[in-house]
Amino acid sequence: MNKKLKELIPETTVKVLSAVAIVAITMIFYFVIIKAMPVIRNSGLGLLTKTGFDQQIRDGFASSADEPMLTFGMLAPIIGTVLSTLIAIVVAGVLAVGAASVICEMVPRGVAAVLTAIVRLLASIPSVVFGLIGVMTVVPLVEKLFITVDMQIEYLEFFQMTGRNLLSSAIVLTFMIVPTIISLSIDAIRAVPNSQREVGYSFGMSRFRVIWKVVLPSARSGIAAGMILGVGRGIGEAIAVSMVCGGNAYIPNIMHGFAALLSPVLPLSSAIINKSEAMSSPAVESALFACGAILLLMGGILSALARLIEKRMRRRAGYAD
């Protein structure tokens, strides 16, 4: 086998596998959109702007196959997805960057190696385990610390206040995504050349100031990648969140103050899990595929945003696009 053929085989293999991946992803998109099209066509823009998802699922399940109820409003699941992910990513981002900085810059190398291994192990834990831990620990703790009988009575006309709520969902999501962000942040921080740290120390900077002013700005591209990956996992997480979210498509009211965090929610991915028992109805099946289509749209927007952030960071660093 000559040298040219040895180079051609792996190159062709990579191209074939890439083509297969592209075709598979395209077919997934096509299948989801086709299945969701009846609800998308009948609901129109109201799919994204109207509420009443829980009742609409019940009406859709009860409707006949000849006259299915195909008008749905998914504003509540969309807001539930955005709020739970936003709260989680803000808290996880702060914790992850701080933990990665300590592991890389402040502890001995042997301890750092052990901590890094533990973080990578946590990142590989199945989501259902986090959900189980959330049900056994987070839900009772939230209920004990924040929910009183008086609060339950006060907000009974709006929702049933239990330990399964937006706050519990955000806490579980935080612990799910923080190991991933820490892991990628560690890689980004370790990629910063030591010469940059030495310049900071030569100017008399403290260790904290070198980390804050030199290391983290240089590693921001990798940290941003970890944050975006964390957002992607938070948006798409279904099992763990569905176990602690409350399962009610309710829009938290900011006028309720802190009690808004104690209201039940139903993120899009959890809606697919929680309502899947009604998929024998064509209307409900199309509605749940519409949830999947919205998730795909959100994922596409996230990917485009990640690309935009990458370009801006490369431009600021002086690299050509």
Quick summary of this structure?
The chain is 74% helix and 0% strand. It is an all-alpha fold. It has a single domain, classed as Orthogonal Bundle (MetI-like fold), CATH 1.10.3720.
Topology:
Layout lengths: L2 H41 L2 H4 L3 H10 L12 H31 L3 H15 L3 H20 L2 H6 L11 H25 L3 H9 L4 H12 L1 H17 L2 H6 L23 H7 L7 H35 L5
Helix pairs in contact: 1-14, 4-8, 4-11, 5-8, 6-8, 8-11, 9-10, 11-14, 13-14
Q: Can you put this structure into words, describing what you see?
A:
The chain is an all-alpha fold and 321 residues long. The protein has helices at 3-43, 46-49, 53-62, 75-105, 109-123, 127-146, 149-154, 166-190, 194-202, 207-218, 220-236, 239-244, 268-274, 282-316. α4 packs parallel to α8 and α5 crosses α8. The model has no long low-confidence stretch (mean pLDDT 87).
